[in-house]
Each structure stands twice: as structure tokens, then as C-alpha cells.
């Protein structure tokens, strides 16, 4: 068999480990030929590929980014006419035939799962692997990249405690997560955040301000607020900046903000993510060997298994009020916005 691999959407730590996992299992165990498709789904049109060998993926395990390059290009644009969609379908099928691919592994987040499902519906043999630091892909307990991002954010929060305490300040740290607050929730708990604000849960500046004033009254030297970038703000203002400004105004306590940004997504994956990515990559090769197409590899408990792309399509995994982290967090005194 000859298979293709592409990586699409925002990058994250562990993609290269996944590519390596797919390749090693596909080539060494199943005797397949593997081709890397460059630049995400765009590569299906431009046809820029490279032969991947056991040797060429050696040394990738601990590297950041994706050796194949990525883009947010979708195979089918939302606003495309029926004619354009037909033409794109024809082109993709023709290119996949020309490349001689029996199946394609698509590594990506929610957008990728959606696009991959569309490709499987036009008759291509597709298997996907979920990846994103946001951990918001429905159908898997965890995505690789998330653990690394949480570790980086936690280290940053750790460092903010001492400077906040020295200056008796409120420190707001904005972490990634537009729709889902998983990074804020996990790093907030791991980093000892006092207040955690998530896109999924409403917050009230006056209530938060009262929590802060009470903390200072009790003798706490500082307060750490972990904010997901996607929380609702007035006029679409940036999350960290808005919360810091409002808190300073309400409490009169000096407040600073730090935006963590892309360091959460770059660099070497954690040991957990290397293992998850390797297992998921190898499982993707197994699904192809079994011709079990139209599936997304997933983690359930400690087991690597798979789920139908049709079940994953158009869903998001979000934090809910009854999530155990939120419940236990509240119990130990963390304020989640109210
Ligand atoms: O990878 C997910 C994510 O990091 C989001 O949390 C973030 O807002 C977004 O990607 C930004 O990515 P880009 O600037 O590459 O579109």
C-alpha cells in the first residue's frame, strides 16, 4: 500500500512524533510506502510531496512544529458554489490517483476533522489523528500538544507568583483557548491560580474584584488570575488586557497582565505528548492496514482506539460547570468568575 500524510491547521508539539509513529509502523511493520504531503490540504491541489522513509523520520520524536508544513486551507471553501465544489472534488480525486495513494492520514484539529470527513464522503480512504494544544476535539479524552501547552503555561504561572507577591499586585495571565478553556483550567489549577476565567463560564468583574479585596484583607500578598483568550469582553477587547484594566479600576490594586501567546505551541513536546503522539500515529497505520477508514484515532482512558469521523464532525469538546476540575477547584476556593 502507498499512503499519504498531511498536517493541517495550527501546529502543536507532537506532530512530528505522530508522523514518525505513522511512518515507522507503516513502513517497518506493515511494509507500506509513505509519502508526506506538504502544506496541509493545499498540498492535495499543488501535489508537493516527499517520500518519507524510516531514516528520514528518525530524530523527529522531540522536535516541535511539523516537517510537512501546515496551512489553514480547507479542501472545500464554505462559500464555494456547487460548480466549484464539483471541480475541487474532481481535482482532489485526480491528484490522489496521480500520487497513487491508497489512503491518507490527516493530522489536525477540529477544522481538519471536518474537512477529512468531507474527503471521506467523496470516496477517499481517510484516517485522522486529533491534534491541538486546545484539547477541544470531541471524541478523544485528550489531544497531543495539550500536555506540553499546560506545562509551559504552568511554568509561566509559577514565575508570576514571586513577582506578583514582591509588588503586592494582581497578575492576570492570558493563555490560549478561543472556544474551550482547557489550558486555562488545567494550568490554572496546576499553577495555583486564585481565579480562573473560561470562555464556557460567565464571569462578573464586581464579584471577582470582591474576591481579590477579601484575599488582600486576609493577608494574601497577591492574586493570580488565569484567563482563556476566548472569554467574552466588552467590544471584543483582548481578554487579559480587559480583565486587568477592569480589576485595577474596581479594586484600586495595581494589576499587570501577561499574554503567553505562541510559546504555548512551539518547541519540544512533553514526554506524555511524545508517547500519546507515537501511539496514535502507530494506531493510524493499523487502521489503514485493516482498511478501517473514515475513522479518527482517539484516547479513551488509557486505551488508543478510534471513532467514526461522522460522529466527531461539527462537535466541540468544551468545559462544563460539572467538570470535576471545576467542582474540585471551587471546593478548594478557586473562583471561576462568580
Ligand atoms: O492551536 C490552537 C490555537 O492555538 C488557538 O488557541 C489560538 O487562538 C489559535 O490557534 C491561533 O492560531 P493562529 O494564529 O495560527 O491562527
Report the sheet-strand fraction.
Answer: 15-25%
Q: What is the number of strand segments?
A: 11
SS-derived structural category = alpha/beta
Q: CATH first level of the largest domain: which class?
A: Alpha Beta
Spell the H/E element sequence.
EHEHEHEHEHEHEHEHEHEEHH
Write down the domain tally.
2
How many strands, which pairing sense, and closed or not: the largest β-sheet? 7 strands, mixed
User: How confident overall, as mean pLDDT?
Assistant: 97
Please identify, by name, the CATH architecture of the largest domain: 3-Layer(aba) Sandwich
Q: What is the fold named in CATH at topology level of the largest domain?
A: Rossmann fold
Radius of gyration: 22 Å
Tally of helical segments: 11
* Low-confidence region ranges: none
Detailed description of the structure:
- The chain is of the alpha/beta class and 338 residues long.
- The protein folds into 2 domains: 2-145 and 269-312, Rossmann fold, CATH 3.40.50.450; 148-265, Rossmann fold, CATH 3.40.50.460.
- It is 41% helix and 17% strand.
- The chain has 11 helices and 11 strands.
- Strands 3-2-1-4-5-10-11 form a 7-stranded mixed β-sheet, with helices on both faces. A 4-stranded parallel β-sheet has the order 7-8-6-9, sandwiched between helices.
- Strand 1, helix 1 and strand 2 (33-37) form a beta-alpha-beta unit.
- Helix 1 (15-29) packs across helix 9 and helix 5 (146-167) crosses helix 6 (182-190).
- The radius of gyration is 22 Å and the shape is elongated.
- It binds 6-O-phosphono-beta-D-fructofuranose.
- 6-O-phosphono-beta-D-fructofuranose binds next to loops.
